Amino acid sequence: MQCFPSLVLALSSLLGALALLQLSLYLRVPSRYGKHEERLCRPRGRLPARCAWFVQELPSFLVPALLLALRSPPRLEPLGCRLLCCLFCWHYFYRTFIYPFFTRGRPFPLQLLFFGTLFCVYNGFLQGYYLIYCAEYPNDWCTDIRFTSGLLLFLLGMGINIHSDLLLRQLRKPGEVTYKIPQGGLFTYVSGANYFGEIVEWFGFAIATWSLPAFTFAFFTLCCIGPRAYHHHRYYLKTFTDYPKSRKALIPFVF
Ligand SMILES: NC(=O)c1ccc[n+]([C@@H]2O[C@H](COP(=O)([O-])OP(=O)(O)OC[C@H]3O[C@@H](n4cnc5c(N)ncnc54)[C@H](OP(=O)(O)O)[C@@H]3O)[C@@H](O)[C@H]2O)c1
């Protein structure tokens, strides 16, 4: 396989367009899973959350891993391959093989699962193809301020995301499906602490890789879970009269 820059440009542009489409769809109405399924009509087919998250996220890990394994010669050079392995695949290893097995979430709608899985194939291919076959970095990239600051942001975001998802999980006993007020960590400041972490993480990845596909994916993430954080916030304010009034939706002290 070789690098076709026009393919990367086309796939990135389509991802950007999908991001804007999502933003326009989900600003007014939240995506219909989790706590927002209650207020809206319940879709018919649903899969247990563990299974659904595993199936949905697997392609994001598998597609780049396969591209990497099929690369000839099979090695971890150039630097793009290492970045991909260490950051992108690391996140999706966690999201596919660890997160689903601890979730206490409600069953997930099949329709959303279908689109989520398609997206993961698409994005896994785009990020993997670019970093394995197209990306070129100077030898001293690892000491470049973009790499070091991006890596720090990525790690910080991932830490916030994992910690916040853990705090949410601890709100429920096994088998419970009720909603409570999240407390602690970054939830002290925002309702969408896990989403804030994920957004910081992908912008960090974009800065570290300094690539169009990664910036487009970070933008997509913002357009996808940014509105969801806002809807979570409104849900909490409506549902809990004692919900902390100083808490923001997504960005501490700002929004
Ligand atoms: N990169 C992307 O574009 C993208 C897109 C979507 C998700 N994600 C990531 O995937 C992860 C899960 O996303 P999500 O949309 O499912 O997050 P979420 O709505 O915040 O829910 C996360 C988990 O916590 C439970 N939960 C949420 N609020 C709760 C409360 N107040 N009390 C008790 N339990 C509560 C949920 O149960 P229920 O399912 O029963 O509500 C679910 O199991 C997050 O880390 C997110 O950042 C990334």
UniProtKB/TrEMBL annotation:
It catalyses: 5alpha-pregnane-3,20-dione + NADP(+) = progesterone + NADPH + H(+); 17beta-hydroxy-5alpha-androstan-3-one + NADP(+) = testosterone + NADPH + H(+); a 3-oxo-5alpha-steroid + NADP(+) = a 3-oxo-Delta(4)-steroid + NADPH + H(+). Coiled coil: none annotated. Converts testosterone (T) into 5-alpha-dihydrotestosterone (DHT) and progesterone or corticosterone into their corresponding 5-alpha-3-oxosteroids. It plays a central role in sexual differentiation and androgen physiology. It comes from Gallus gallus (Chicken). GO terms for cellular component: endoplasmic reticulum membrane; neuronal cell body. This is 3-oxo-5-alpha-steroid 4-dehydrogenase. GO terms for biological process: androgen biosynthetic process; cell differentiation; male genitalia development; male gonad development; testosterone biosynthetic process. It is found in: Endoplasmic reticulum membrane; Microsome membrane. Residues 107-255 form the 3-oxo-5-alpha-steroid 4-dehydrogenase C-terminal domain. The lineage of its organism: Eukaryota, Metazoa, Chordata, Craniata, Vertebrata.
